[in-house]
């Protein structure tokens, strides 16, 4: 099969999965097998695209000319492949986790859930491989619309309210700012195609470019830069597999990926470094990192604490992109990978705790490590990954982000990153440490065995396997980050 056909297959496999899931809705084991096989097939196809890309092959697909100069087209480039690799692999793991969670928690409308999940992955592939801003925008909006029913999955008043906040902010920012930025880019540059080094001519007004950059940063609401971040904690009413989709597999990663791609392939290093708005947006990203960390520290609901942690960590990726240095871009792209594995593990653990122990508050988790040792060990590993210390891959992304602030002479931001890391220690590490080392209380101890010891009661096996895989991935990425590093270097 040709490389261009492989690229098209990567775009079509999730849609074919939707058909298979709908046809097998009456047989849940078959339906879930279709999801797992489709996810595995997608990952295999995306992996096959890795060698020809590094070999320098041009792999592109043209679907449709909407009007002169405006096409629905796709092209393989390094950062897009990195995003696609992460999303396709985590589709496998999240599907495995969802099988255990959805059954263990007795969730309704499971066929709809798996179908919309597949549509979301199709949208992610479209975003990852988009050749131009028009194609990217189309799939960006599809991702918003197909994840809305997942956010409101429970059907309660609280879920519907969370869905309204989710939809209003994401559609409002994309139509009010992002679309306007795309139109202005077309008028200024005469093209929407991504190009290494950027697409604007050297004589383009710095003031206009500053306005344009502000529109892009605020327009990509999925990146959750303050003050357009409220949709993320509001969406925590969704089932935990959806939270994993939002935080690690698709939605927020699509947001920061878009910003990274815009900074690198629409503006370029030299343009970003020369326009006034970059400096102020850097400080805005820094403020988002710090403020979200402080808010996370104050949250007692576990999923809300993790949600505000995500807002903070997304700020790291945005900051790295805006630094417009080689180390900053490297750290930003690596953090997409490292945060994906760390945060998905944390949400998997939160869901496992809900299913097995029926607990949602941080204060209820004391002593829980005796009842759920595998889950809380995974939580500890993932926390270290988010913090950015060994033995986890988060070490590399935080290291390169620090180097990026050094290269850009942004000492204030360097200190801010250090303070934020200390805050992440404060809001994450006490949870697993107290789970293992606090004395058992009647509420935390769980069910007692006949000899008086605490009986182990973990989540269903598929969920446990999934969180074990992603926790192991956090450690694996410390030892073997080279495959992603090579992609990033090829894209800079």
3D structure, described in words:
- With 492 residues, this protein is mainly alpha-helical.
- It has a domain at 276-492.
- Helix content is 73%, strand content 3%.
- It is built from 22 helices and 2 strands.
- The chain has helices spanning 3-23, 28-48, 50-54, 78-104, 110-129, 133-151, 157-189, 206-219, 231-234, 240-249, 251-267, 269-274, 277-298, 302-323, 326-357, 373-387, 394-407, 411-428, 430-437, 442-445, 461-479, 482-491, and strands at 60-67, 70-75.
- A two-stranded antiparallel ribbon has the order 1-2.
- Helix 2 (28-48) runs antiparallel to helix 4, helix 6 (133-151) packs antiparallel against helix 7 (157-189) and helix 7 packs antiparallel against helix 8.
- The model is unreliable at 442-450 (pLDDT under 50).
- Pfam families: Proton_antipo_M (PF00361), Proton_antipo_N (PF00662).
Name the features.
492 residues; mainly alpha; two-stranded antiparallel sheet
Q: Rounded to an integer, what's the Rg over CA atoms? A: 22 Å
Give me the secondary-structure category: mainly alpha
Record field, number of beta strands: 2
Count of helical regions: 22
Helicity level: over 70%
Low-pLDDT regions: 442-450
Proportion of residues in extended strands: under 5%
How far is the first residue's CA from the last residue's CA?
29 Å
Please give the structural blueprint.
Layout: H1 3-23, H2 28-48, H3 50-54, E1 60-67, E2 70-75, H4 78-104, H5 110-129, H6 133-151, H7 157-189, H8 206-219, H9 231-234, H10 240-249, H11 251-267, H12 269-274, H13 277-298, H14 302-323, H15 326-357, H16 373-387, H17 394-407, H18 411-428, H19 430-437, H20 442-445, H21 461-479, H22 482-491
Antiparallel strand pairs: 1-2
